[in-house]
């Protein structure tokens, strides 16, 4: 596999469930990102990890919990979500952003529906 | 703070028509500028970029010129194809410090091209 992969591609969960989204990059990058894409709203950056360290938490509610065990994998753990959390969740990766301006490569996203 | 404003969509064109999608930005200094494209069911891909004033980015027949005096980066294509149907995002990268790795996106413009 190449590029950035995300699983599952679609997820339906109840408000009391706990689930996790997975992202894997095969590009040798050091930085990984979670974005939320909602209808009629701009893409929102949620979290940034650089060399496995979280460098950005964009005021995301604690019901979203990221985990980055290594530079190739990124998880987003979900619990007690609300219907307004339904969205497309996109993962991206790039070279170390502090080293210059590098393109971000995006995965296809996980379409999340909270019922 | 940084912001990006794109023209409201959706935009519907016939094949071979001329395309313009407007993008203006507010930022400190003179940042690089990007256009990303999202085809149906896929993640975002970098379409083109410009790194300094008066630069012209181009790719797949699309062009955009970085206009410092009007703080604009409008996307153009002389003759669109059905395969260009997608969502187009103008984006502004963070300039440094705690902004490293942060992309600010416009709200996206949906383009539909009919045969």
Please explain how this structure is put together:
The complex is a heterodimer of chains A (115) and B (115). Chain A is built from no helices and eleven strands. Chain A is mostly beta strands and 115 residues long. Chain A is globular and about 40 Å long. By secondary structure, chain B is mainly beta. Chain B has no helices and twelve strands. In chain B, strands 2, 5, 6, 10, 11 and 12 form a six-stranded mixed sheet that branches. In chain B, strands 3-9-8-7 form a four-stranded antiparallel sheet, with no helix packed on it. The model of chain B has no long low-confidence stretch (mean pLDDT 90). At the A-B interface, β5 and β9 of A face β6 and β11 of B.
Q: Write the element-wise H/E pattern of chain A from the N-terminal end onward.
A: EEEEEEEEEEE
The level of helicity of chain B is under 10%
End-to-end CA span of chain B: 41 Å
Question: What's the alpha carbon Rg of chain B, rounded to whole Å?
Answer: 14 Å
What is the helix tally of chain A? 0
Stretches of chain B where pLDDT falls below 50 for ≥5 residues?
none
How much of the sequence of chain B is in beta strands? over 45%
Task: Report the average pLDDT across residues of chain A.
Answer: 90
- Main beta sheet strand tally, sense and closure of chain B: 6 strands, mixed
